[in-house]
Each structure stands twice: as structure tokens, then as C-alpha cells.
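Q: C-alpha cells for this one, please.
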Amino acid sequence: MNRRSVPRGVALGLFVAVLIPVMHTAIAAILAIPTRANVAIAAAFTLVVNPLTIPPLYYAAYRVGSWELHHDVPIVDPHAAERFSSELSRLLFWIHQASGSIALGVLTIAALSALIGYVVAALVWRFWSGSRWRQRRRTRG
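A: Here is the predicted structure, written as C-alpha cells:
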């Protein structure tokens, strides 16, 4: 654990957790090795995303992606949806209509959470190590 590997681990863990919904802990741990990030920290920060946080995350991703793509129309056009008779057809139509916004939103949220996580972890590490140095200086002097 050092000042470079911990923020990298936090950023990698958050990025992978948001971007990849399945097996994200194992993927983050494997990706931490070539990026020289802390493996344990990267794996631990993937636990931010869990079954309780996935629905709000994907709704937020849809809203962010729609805003970025300037989609001000409703998610499903009622006239186009009437053409489809079965529930499966309506579901597939909805997924087709929302997929671009959700994909862009998930990528944006993953990148922003990784950036914020990296900056916060670097600042916390710097503050923590500075307090440790001050404490050592007081005990020696």
C-alpha cells in the first residue's frame, strides 16, 4: 500500500463496478495487477454496486445519457409501441430505445466516479500520511 497504488485501486474498483455489472470484483482484481493498483482496494471498492444500488444507478445513467444526447422525448413513443402486440416485443422495443442513453450514461458515471474516487483517495492518503509524520516528529522531539 502506497500513495500511488491506493488511489489507483479506488478508481479502478469504482470504474469496473459501475461499468461491468457481473463478476466485477474478479475483473477489478485481475485488472489491478497490470495497472499497478492495490488489488485488495480495487476488489473492495467494487462492492459499492450491489443489488440495491443497481436500479437507481441505471435510472441515473439513463437520465445522464438522455441529457448528454439531448433526448427530450419520452422513452417510448406510444404510437410506435402500439404496433407491437406482445409484452416481449414491447420490452425489446423499450430496450432498443433506451440502450444508447443508458450506455453513454453508465460510461459517464463510471468515469466520473473513478475520477472523484481517485482524487478523494489521494487527498485522504496525503492527509493521513502527513498526520503520521507529524505524530512521529512529536514523539521523537
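A few notes: The chain has six helices and no strands. The radius of gyration is 21 Å.
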